């Protein structure tokens, strides 16, 4: 009584993270980016969907993270998106529309597939 569920999820995820790091044999050549991202994404995933991935089986989660990062990086650099926001009629043109909002909508649909699958699960 009085324990915070989110705190328990974070502690549990950190314990799994430390266990994963301890199991790595070549500790001199560890890319810390993915283990940290798996830990953080698992905390969010567990809060939203009620389950967590094991580090060895987290490919769907990492694919989601990679796709999301790709979309955000390209959205920030997209001059076509800025044009589409400034001149909405451009989004209706066949080829220009793809470079203003079409590519963004396609990337979002791909990202949303993960969310829909996990909500249904």
UniProtKB/TrEMBL annotation:
UniProt GO molecular function: heme binding; iron ion binding; monooxygenase activity; oxidoreductase activity, acting on paired donors, with incorporation or reduction of molecular oxygen
Recorded coiled-coil stretches: none
Keywords annotated in UniProt: Monooxygenase, Oxidoreductase
Domain of life of the source: Eukaryota
InterPro entries recorded: Cyt_P450_sf
UniProt-listed SUPFAM superfamilies: Cytochrome P450
UniProt-listed PANTHER family: CYTOCHROME P450 FAMILY
Name of the protein: Cytochrome P450
Organism of origin: Pristionchus entomophagus
Lineage: Eukaryota, Metazoa, Ecdysozoa, Nematoda, Chromadorea
């Amino acid at each position: 009584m009085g324990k915070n569920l989110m705190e328990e999820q974070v502690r549990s995820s950190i314990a799994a993270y430390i266990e994963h790091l301890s199991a790595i044999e070549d500790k001199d050549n560890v890319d810390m980016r993915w283990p940290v991202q798996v830990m953080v994404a698992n905390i969010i995933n567990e809060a939203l969907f009620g389950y967590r991935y094991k580090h060895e089986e987290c490919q769907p989660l990492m694919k989601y993270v990679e796709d999301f990062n790709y979309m955000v990086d390209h959205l920030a650099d997209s001059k076509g998106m800025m044009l589409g926001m400034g001149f909405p009629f451009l989004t209706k043109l066949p080829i220009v529309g793809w470079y203003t909002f079409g590519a963004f909508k396609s990337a979002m649909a791909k990202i949303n597939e993960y969310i829909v699958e996990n909500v249904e699960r």
